[in-house]
Amino acid sequence: PASTLPAVVINEVLTASVPPALDAIELFNPTGQPANISGWMLTDDYREPLKYRIPNNTTIPPYGFLVLDESAFNPAVPTSSEPFALSSRGDEIHLFSTDTYDNLTGYHHGYGFGAAGIGMLIGLTIYLAGQKYLPAEHFVVKDAGKAAPPKLEPGDWPRVIALLILIPVLAVSIVPNNQIFNAYLIWGDQQFDLVWMGQKLPTTWLVTFDAIVSVGFLAGVALFYRWYAKHWQEPDEVMKIIIGSVFSIAGMLCLFMAASTQGEGAKIGLSWPVLFHILNSIGFAHMLPVSLALFAKVAPKAINATVIGLYYLAFFTANALVGWIGGYYETMPTPTFWLLHAGLAAGSGACFILFKLFVGRHLATAD
């Protein structure tokens, strides 16, 4: 069952502020109801939850945000709360629900984070160190003025229209995968048995596991089809997307089963979630990179970049749907919530099948 406590999440953390700006913590209420978080606790140490007490009469509006800067949780003049600071070298942040007597009441959201900006710095270092191995940069256009820019031909329009039809369907198909970063984390934090060797694992480790599995299957699926093509005819891009939809449906049904078989007052073991991440990652490997490759291959050269830009509207629309649908987590039975996502995967998969049967022939001219 869904928790009666508001599912407020730590949306963003600023740890490398430049004066006069201050480090800050942004809270987000993803539900359709006001979230009263008076007296809740913020901390930089999961083992010491009772540090900064959020003031009384603090309410976050539906789908609203609350930003607390360092003047609140690390004031120059100490208050009754225990001050803490966020390190730009990497730290953790947690939100705990409490009652009026500062007793924990069961809700928690939090995660650890790495050093701010270090990833970009490492990337720049690698680029500079390896620049000597790259071809010399030059901006001389060969035969400048002789090659005419490509023109959009009348026969290109059916392909453009076919790709535009795919965008809303892709948006719906992405929702089940992207719900991992929204309601899934809230549900996992509340209902999963995350205790291992006496320590509760951060819920965000599930996202880390998902990333590792996804990268692994991206390579695995590519290698599989390279082997498959040596023996049989490799499926085209649309067929691969249809196959991915099947795995996406199966992944969502794992979450449905996890919620349906949960005993009263019991926690959900990690078997169903792990199976979900595996199946969903196989589906991801068949859908998102393959759909991008399809758009890049089929889009006419004259407007190739424009069409690929339109492709990313699918992600914008999907993330908007993720937030809107995620709001029903608080009011909808959890099994029904995940069954709805399986339905979205099935509905988009059916649309992909219809697309292949009736529209896919317009893409053949691009081969």
Provide an overview of this structure:
By secondary structure, this protein is α+β, with helices and mostly antiparallel strands. 47% of the residues lie in helices and 13% in strands. The protein has ten helices and eleven strands. It is globular and about 70 Å long. The termini are far apart. The model has no long low-confidence stretch (mean pLDDT 86).
List the helices and strands and how they pair.
Elements: E1 9-14, E2 24-28, E3 35-36, E4 41-43, E5 52-53, E6 59-60, E7 65-69, H1 70-73, E8 91-98, E9 104-113, H2 118-130, H3 157-178, H4 183-191, E10 195-196, E11 199-200, H5 205-229, H6 237-260, H7 271-298, H8 304-311, H9 313-326, H10 334-358
Antiparallel strand pairs: 1-2, 2-7, 3-6, 4-5, 4-8, 8-9, 10-11
Helix pairs in contact: 3-7, 3-9, 3-10, 5-7, 6-7, 6-10, 7-8
* Oligomer state of the chains in this structure: single chain
Number of helical stretches of at least 4 residues: 10
Note the overall shape.
globular
Total strands: the figure is 11
> Helix proportion of residues, in percent?
40-55%
Report strand order across the widest sheet: 5-4-8-9
The fraction of residues assigned to DSSP E strands is 5-15%
> Rounded to an integer, what's the Rg over CA atoms?
24 Å
**Could you spell the SSE succession in H and E letters?**
EEEEEEEHEEHHHEEHHHHHH
The averaged pLDDT comes out at 86
Give me the secondary-structure category.
Answer: alpha+beta
Low-confidence stretches: none
**N-end to C-end Cα span:** 51 Å
The biggest beta sheet is recorded as: 4 strands, antiparallel
